[in-house]
């Protein structure tokens, strides 16, 4: 029966979770469902689930683009069904008899084992904890394996990414024993665990419904799983790299790294780890044996404190954007510095150029140290003047207030702030007064989403030479690629750039 779920031959199936209050809503969801291998219909979301007739199940399956399964989660396990257990069991038995692809039944249902024994369709046996770090996790997994369902599903909420470590271990152990599994955490902090489970042998990953709100927090959209993570190629035992930051929904790092790994046939996957604090993300990365991490805002400076060793450049900058796992812990690097120099050197000689850097965070620090080392005359400007003062003192430059930006002329203007980034309240603003441009400046914006920021648009209209943040992004990523894979093989820069461009076109 496992063949009906597509989990018998290895790999992971993408299952869209679909919920609506009525049949019309479900039909709309089915019509929009793309990118999935399976669809799970949450019957407990219906206004009157017990009123479902046999033709309802058959109609849903006939209209669906992929096989459809059903579940009816009771309120005692976090669902919406409030009726009697006898009615719930009868509902799911009728769904199975209609030819469903699978049925999901809770382990704590008194009738679960009998249902599995009598079912003519694959049964997913599930348990959803209401609290993280369940005390009886190992016992639950052992009992599930003894029953032998089509898939053993173990789910708990996560407050931090590290909360998923026990569940991921349990799922990997089930998969290694020959029991198909899906063990992960829900919630925004658990989103990374859903993908990590795939690299540890998970049979299913539950994805967001195509329209409306996700059925469960932390679900990925199917198009992201396929087009950016390229999850269809992931297998148990894959090596892993990732990205830690907050926010990271805008990041296109997964798209470019997974494209590069696939093009060079590297058995490695790359995933984002959303985290409000860096330490839990590092705990998860260490437990899952990640080869390395990209580190983005706001953690580039904090990351240096978690490194057993620092590359000399990263040490001088005091900011880390790349972590490499070594036997004694993390080694920190800063690939932003080289990327700034590489991109800028293609359009101008750096030595002697008057450069103003807007911002004083990790990327700004990398740019300042790298350009100072090559003889640029630096001016630092930041909303918090003290940070600009400190950075200027370290690199031998000067600092000014935002109000003083118009008092001088610069050869190069670098925006290392998030102003202009799509989705922010200030995404229509420019960090530099455009009416002060003369048209002969080089304007370099580190923001790459959108590719043409308000600053770059206005600067180009004034006749300035502009450098997109995409160029900085791709070049620093190429250096990360080489650090993680080792050896002298160059990164596939053209493939990474093309993947980034396509990802940005998708929005």
Task: Please describe what this structure looks like.
This protein has 507 residues and is of the alpha/beta class. Helix 10 packs across helix 19 (493-506) and helix 14 (336-345) packs across helix 18. The two termini are 40 Å apart. Helix content is 37%, strand content 19%. The chain folds into three domains: 2-237, TIM Barrel; 260-334 and 473-506, Rossmann fold (3-Layer(aba) Sandwich), CATH 3.40.50; 337-467, 3-Layer(aba) Sandwich (Rossmann fold). The longest helix is centred in the last third of the chain and has 17 residues, at 469-485. The strands form three sheets. It has an eight-stranded parallel sheet. The chain contains 19 helices and 20 strands. It is elongated and about 80 Å long.
CATH topology of the largest domain: TIM Barrel
Structural class: alpha/beta
The neighbouring-strand order within the major sheet is 7-6-5-4-3-2-1-8
User: Mind telling me the CATH class of the largest domain?
Assistant: Alpha Beta
Query: What is the distance, rounded to the nearest whole angstrom, between the alpha carbons of the first and last residues?
Result: 40 Å
CATH superfamily of the largest domain: Aldolase class I
Mean pLDDT: 93
What composes the largest sheet?
8 strands, parallel
Low-pLDDT ranges? none
In DSSP terms, counting alpha (H) and pi (I) runs of 4 or more, how many helices?
A: 19
Beta-strand residue fraction: 15-25%
Q: How many extended strands?
A: 20
CATH-scheme architecture of the largest domain: Alpha-Beta Barrel
Roughly how many Å is the radius of gyration? 26 Å
Categorize the overall geometry. Answer: elongated
For the record, the count of structural domains works out to 3
Residues in helix, %: 25-40%
């Amino acid at each position: 029966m496992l063949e009906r779920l597509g989990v018998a031959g290895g790999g992971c199936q993408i299952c869209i979770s679909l919920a609506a209050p009525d049949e019309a809503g479900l039909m709309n969801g089915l019509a929009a469902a793309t990118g999935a291998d399976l669809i799970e219909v949450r019957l407990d979301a219906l206004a009157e689930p017990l009123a479902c007739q046999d033709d309802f199940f058959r109609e849903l399956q006939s209209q669906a683009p992929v096989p459809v399964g059903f579940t009816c989660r009771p309120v005692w396990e976090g669902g919406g069904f409030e009726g009697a257990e006898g009615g719930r069991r009868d509902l799911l038995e009728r769904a199975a008899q209609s030819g469903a692809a699978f049925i999901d039944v809770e382990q704590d249902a008194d009738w679960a084992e009998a249902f599995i024994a009598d079912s003519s369709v694959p049964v997913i046996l599930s348990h959803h904890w209401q609290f993280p770090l369940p005390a009886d996790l190992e016992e639950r997994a052992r009992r599930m394996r003894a029953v032998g369902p089509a898939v053993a599903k173990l789910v708990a909420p996560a407050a931090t990414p590290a909360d998923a470590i026990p569940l991921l271990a349990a799922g990997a152990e089930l998969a290694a024993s020959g029991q198909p599994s899906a063990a992960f955490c829900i919630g925004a902090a658990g989103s990374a665990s859903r993908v990590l489970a795939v690299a540890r042998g998970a049979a299913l990953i539950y994805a967001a419904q195509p329209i409306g709100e996700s059925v469960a927090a932390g679900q990925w959209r199917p198009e992201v799983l396929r087009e950016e993570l390229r999850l269809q190629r992931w297998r148990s035992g894959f090596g892993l790299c990732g990205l830690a930051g907050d926010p990271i929904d805008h990041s296109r790092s997964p798209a470019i790294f997974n494209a590069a790994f696939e093009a060079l046939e590297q058995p490695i996957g790359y995933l984002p780890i959303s985290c409000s604090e860096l330490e839990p993300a590092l705990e998860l990365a260490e437990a899952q044996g990640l080869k390395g991490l990209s580190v983005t805002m706001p953690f580039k400076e904090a990351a240096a404190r978690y490194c057993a060793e620092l590359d000399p450049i990263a040490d001088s900058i005091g900011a880390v954007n790349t972590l490499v796992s070594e036997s004694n812990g993390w080694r920190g690097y800063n690939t932003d510095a080289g990327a700034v120099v590489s991109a800028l050197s293609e359009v101008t000689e750096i030595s002697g150029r008057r450069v103003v850097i807007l911002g004083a965070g990790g990327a700004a620090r990398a740019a300042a140290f790298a350009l100072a080392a090559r003889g640029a005359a630096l001016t630092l400007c930041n909303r918090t003047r003290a940070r600009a003062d400190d950075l200027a003192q370290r690199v031998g430059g000067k600092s000014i207030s935002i109000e003083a930006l118009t008092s001088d002329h610069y050869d190069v203007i670098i925006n290392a702030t998030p102003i202009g980034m799509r989705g922010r309240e200030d995404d229509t603003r420019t960090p530099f007064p455009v009416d002060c441009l003369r048209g002969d400046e080089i304007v370099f914006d580190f923001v790459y989403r959108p590719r043409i920021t308000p600053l770059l648009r206005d600067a180009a209209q004034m006749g300035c030479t502009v450098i997109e943040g995409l160029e900085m992004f791709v070049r620093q990523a190429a250096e990360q690629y080489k650090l993680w894979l080792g050896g002298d093989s160059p990164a596939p820069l053209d493939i990474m750039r093309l993947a980034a461009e396509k990802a940005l076109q998708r929005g």
